[in-house]
């Protein structure tokens, strides 16, 4: 049976708050790219903690990637999902509203809720790097664009995907918390938030 861990909005808020100084001081992001749908809420919360007086808010863009698929369950009200084998691109940067050239030479923070198999993160970094490199060639720029990653939870397990070695060596990857290979239930996935919070309150602290 899959062990489930229920995470509350308060816990997400505090994980973002605890990570903000490291992100601001080490990553120095000019832009956040949230991977939907799990990265939307953490990115928005994080932006409040990254805001500095007299400085503008860090812009947030969104991409949509899907990897998980639902498994048959004996309890229809308690479905179980599992990582799939293929990343599906459901949404990408809108080149008409955000020119890729504007990303060249920037520090870009990719935000997601969980690093499970790392397949989605690998895809996001690889494809975004390709797009930015193409844009740099078009404008004749040799400026370096630096990608960093922030996730709420990293699952301690063998990963199928791989991130650039330079990113890992330079410490441009940050997980607010590392957990065992459990199924994490986030509050934005709940259809009954009161029941979700009750389950979170009744469980042992992870």
What does this structure look like?
There is one protein chain. With 206 residues, the protein is α/β, with parallel strands linked by helices. The chain is 32% helix and 30% strand. It is built from 5 helices and 8 strands; from the N terminus they run βαβαβββαβαββα. The protein has helices spanning 9-27, 40-50, 119-139, 165-169, 193-202; strands spanning 4-6, 31-36, 60-71, 80-91, 107-115, 146-155, 173-179, 183-185. Strands 4-3-2-5-6-7 form a 6-stranded mixed beta sheet, with helices on both faces. Helix 1 packs across helix 2 (40-50). The longest helix is centred in the middle third of the chain and has 21 residues, at 119-139. It is globular and about 55 Å long. The two termini are 18 Å apart. Residues 69-74 have low confidence and may be disordered.
Number of helices: 5
- Encode the helix/strand succession as letters: EHEHEEEHEHEEH
Structural class: alpha/beta
* Average predicted confidence as pLDDT: 88
**Oligomeric composition of the shown chains:** single chain
Radius of gyration: 18 Å
Indicate the percent of residues in helices: 25-40%
Strand content: 25-35%
């Amino acid at each position: 049976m899959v062990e489930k861990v229920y995470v509350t909005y308060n816990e997400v808020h505090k994980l973002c708050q605890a990570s903000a100084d490291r992100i601001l001081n080490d990553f120095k992001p000019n832009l956040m790219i949230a991977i939907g749908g799990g990265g939307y809420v953490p990115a928005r919360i994080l932006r409040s903690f990254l805001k500095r007086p007299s400085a503008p808010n860090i812009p947030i863009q969104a991409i949509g990637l899907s990897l998980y698929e639902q498994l048959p369950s004996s309890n229809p009200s308690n479905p179980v999902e599992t990582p799939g084998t293929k990343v599906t691109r459901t949404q990408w940067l809108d080149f008409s509203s955000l020119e890729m050239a504007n990303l060249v030479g920037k520090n870009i923070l990719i935000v997601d809720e969980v690093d499970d198999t790392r397949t989605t993160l690998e895809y996001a970094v690889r494809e975004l790097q390709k797009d930015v490199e193409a844009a740099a060639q078009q404008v004749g720029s040799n400026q370096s664009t630096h990608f960093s990653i922030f996730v709420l939870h990293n699952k301690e397990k063998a990963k199928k995907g791989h991130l650039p070695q330079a990113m890992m060596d330079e410490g441009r990857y940050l997980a607010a918390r590392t957990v065992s290979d459990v199924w994490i239930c986030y509050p934005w996935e709940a259809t009954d938030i009161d029941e979700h919070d009750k389950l979170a309150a009744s469980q042992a602290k992870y």
